[in-house]
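Database export, one record per block. Field names are fixed; values are copied verbatim from the stored entry.
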Amino acid sequence: MPAPTFELRLRPATLEDASLAADLESLRDPAEPRDPVLLRHWWRMADEHEEAMRQIDVRDGAAVAFLSASHKPWLGGGPRFGAVRPVLRSDVWDDGTYAELVGRGEGWLREQDAQTSVVRVREDFAHELAVLENIGYREDRRMRISELDLTTHADDIRRHARATREAMDGHDVVMRPLSEDVDPEKLQKLYELMMESEQDIPTTVPRRAPAYEEWRRFWFDNPAIRQDRFWIAREGDAIVGTSVLDCPTVRGVPWTAYTGTLRSVRGRGIARALKYQSMAQAIDAGYTRVRTTNDADNPPILRINQEMGYRLVSPIIELHRRLD
């Protein structure tokens, strides 16, 4: 007689469940544990600025399944994309149960009038990909998770950090942490820089430009972001580039959260120089590795990563399925 199929017992997830969801996420890849404090921040921001649903199945004090679905506010008559994130613990894994999680997320998106469901999953999570493809999801884009071994490359990183800083000084480009910048308008200028540079990141799902206050809270209420690890480049009175390190508060791996420059200064090595300053700072802070995620169709930043010594951990596959 076949073993009974695992039956989901999902309930709404609150902010207090972030630590349980983080523990569950961490089981998928122990080399990339999820920080519960940071996850709680993301949930809180989603509750304030998106439409979002989260459900969790807890047994004996630990999460065995988690589901979230969300979408940005619908803008005019543009395409309506929603995201689904299903997680099922390996000891209760069943293809049908995982498909049920996805289906519940899609059902919520349909109620929200979404047109396309988006799931992002690492290529090495083959069992999840197989189920998604079987129920009709198809690859639309690829991103790359890459990791830099700061111990192995420490000497080269420090050497390049000094050399690029001298080169920038010679061209009247000043690099410093945001915490050392005294301009009272620095956050407004940084906002304008990031809004411009973000428009050039390849994407299929449209990006919504946040208002200044929403942007400020997204970045600077974030417990993993510190102004002394938020590098900026100035040319005259303008902020022309930035690179920021996202550091875990409880556990996890530091990530380069963002690197970008104004279009008018591209091709001058400013993004490269900023990233070297950030990595040298990470070494000095005692970190042994850093990860980053980049779209596979973004050659300039991928070239910088290759030069610095990043290695591919896994592609992230963005899969889409029409809901109508």
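Remark 1: The longest strand covers residues 138-149.
Remark 2: DSSP finds nine helices and twelve strands in the chain.
End of record.
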